[in-house]
């Protein structure tokens, strides 16, 4: 029997936010959605190693104008951000769509954005929609590809 979302998140020390799932109540949807929840946790703790660890070894992250194509590139980029302009920042978002492309691959679309240190909500210029390709290998959900695009501008 596959691990539940609660079990997956607990194995990473991530507290489950059941409100995040919204209408996506199917256990398989929730399991796929543990990937954005783990990324949210990494942002909350400003932990670049945890952030990069959510990705597959050859994971891809398109962040603004930067196309990053390995865990190490992703880790270095996020570390520079968390040490600089993103210090204390976190993200908030919610799923809009979960579509399984195969038994072990899902496309997730979310909406949300970055909340900078001292702010209480996402500024309009930092609101985004994101596409996540998440994969399951041996019961482990990981992020293969992530791209975000501004909603405005």
From TrEMBL:
Query: Which InterPro entries did the record assign?
Result: NTF2-like_dom_sf (IPR032710), SnoaL-like (IPR037401), Steroid_delta5-4_isomerase (IPR011944)
Annotated signal sequence range: none
> Residue limits of the SnoaL-like domain?
41-142
Query: What NCBIfam families would the database entry show?
Result: SgcJ/EcaC family oxidoreductase
Q: What is this protein called?
A: SgcJ/EcaC family oxidoreductase
- Species of provenance: Amycolatopsis eburnea
Give the taxonomic lineage as stored in the record.
Bacteria, Bacillati, Actinomycetota, Actinomycetes, Pseudonocardiales
């Amino acid at each position: 029997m596959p691990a539940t979302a609660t079990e997956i998140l607990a194995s990473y020390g991530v507290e489950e936010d059941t409100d995040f799932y919204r209408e996506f109540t199917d256990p398989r949807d929730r399991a796929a959605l543990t990937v954005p929840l783990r990324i949210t946790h990494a942002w909350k703790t400003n932990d670049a190693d945890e952030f990069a660890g959510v990705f597959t070894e050859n994971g891809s992250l398109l962040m603004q104008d930067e196309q990053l194509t390995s865990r190490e590139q992703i880790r270095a980029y996020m570390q520079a951000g968390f040490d600089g302009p993103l210090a204390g920042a976190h993200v908030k978002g919610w799923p809009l769509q979960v579509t399984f492309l195969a038994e072990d691959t899902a496309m997730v679309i979310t909406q949300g954005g970055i909340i900078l240190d001292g702010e209480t909500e996402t500024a309009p210029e930092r609101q985004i929609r994101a596409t996540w390709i998440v994969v399951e290998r041996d019961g482990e959900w990981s992020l293969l590809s992530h791209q975000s695009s501004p909603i405005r501008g």
